């Protein structure tokens, strides 16, 4: 798949990157976010929601595991998952997410989504000492084989 690396100077830029990513997502897309607490996963997801045109605020789904945000613009809903407290891929599977009809974003999803979808877009966020972030996108599977549009900064 395609790999992209970008520097994200501040939270606004992270949000903006999410908006661009969200505009490019379609039903069936699975996005996995990795990075430590405070890396900006939820900030990015908020942007993705805006890009998808979903209704209502996107907040951390920690206590509900998964939250569905319907689209206001005839696009797929955003399903926002926090897998931090899930012990195994089976528990994620038990949530019965509507993968085919949604754009699914999973915080702490590394190692949890194996086998869930043919294609996965992994977004790894690293926090630097100066509070900027380094973001690495890696798409695997047919969906991301050469989708420069999604991965272009
Ligand atoms: P996570 O979901 O990964 O735990 P959040 O998005 O909830 O992270 O929190 C990230 C915090 O870091 C926010 O308070 C945000 O304003 C702040 N922040 C500072 N600089 C950046 C940056 N370059 N990118 C993203 N967030 C940043
Ligand atoms: Mg979060």
Question: What would you say this structure looks like, in words?
Answer:
The chain is α/β, with parallel strands linked by helices and 153 residues long. The chain has a single domain, classed as Rossmann fold. Helices cover 24% and strands 27% of the residues. It has four helices and seven strands; from the N terminus they run βαβαββαβββα. It has a seven-stranded mixed sheet, covered by helices on one side. α1 crosses α2. It binds adenosine-5'-diphosphate and magnesium ion. The site of magnesium ion has 4 residues, from α2. Pfam families: TsaE. InterPro entries: P-loop_NTPase, T6A_TsaE. One of its GO terms (biological process) is tRNA threonylcarbamoyladenosine modification. Keywords: ATP-binding, Cytoplasm, Magnesium, Metal-binding, Nucleotide-binding, Transferase, tRNA processing. It is found in: Cytoplasm.
Tags for this model:
single chain, 153 residues, alpha/beta, Rossmann fold, 7-stranded mixed beta sheet, 4 helices, 24% helix, binds adenosine-5'-diphosphate, binds magnesium ion
Number of helices: 4
Please tally the β strands and state the result. Answer: 7
Quick one: CATH superfamily? P-loop containing nucleotide triphosphate hydrolases
Tell me what the CATH architecture is.
3-Layer(aba) Sandwich
CATH class: Alpha Beta
Poorly predicted runs of 5 or more residues: none
The strand order across the widest sheet is 1-7-6-2-5-4-3
CATH fold-level assignment = Rossmann fold
């Amino acid at each position: 798949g395609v790999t992209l690396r970008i520097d994200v100077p501040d939270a606004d830029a992270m949000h903006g990157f999410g908006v661009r990513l969200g505009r490019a997502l379609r039903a069936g897309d699975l996005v996995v976010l990795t990075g430590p607490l405070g890396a900006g996963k939820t900030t990015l997801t908020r942007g993705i929601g805006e890009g998808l045109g979903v209704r209502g605020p996107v907040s951390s789904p920690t206590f509900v595991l998964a939250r569905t945000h319907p689209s206001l613009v005839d696009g797929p809903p955003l399903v926002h998952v926090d897998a931090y407290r899930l012990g195994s891929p089976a528990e994620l599977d038990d949530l019965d997410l509507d993968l085919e009809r949604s754009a699914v974003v999973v915080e702490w999803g590394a190692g949890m989504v194996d086998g869930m979808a043919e294609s996965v877009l992994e977004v790894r966020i690293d926090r630097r000492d100066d509070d900027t972030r380094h973001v690495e996108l890696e798409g695997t599977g047919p969906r991301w084989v050469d989708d420069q549009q999604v991965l272009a900064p």
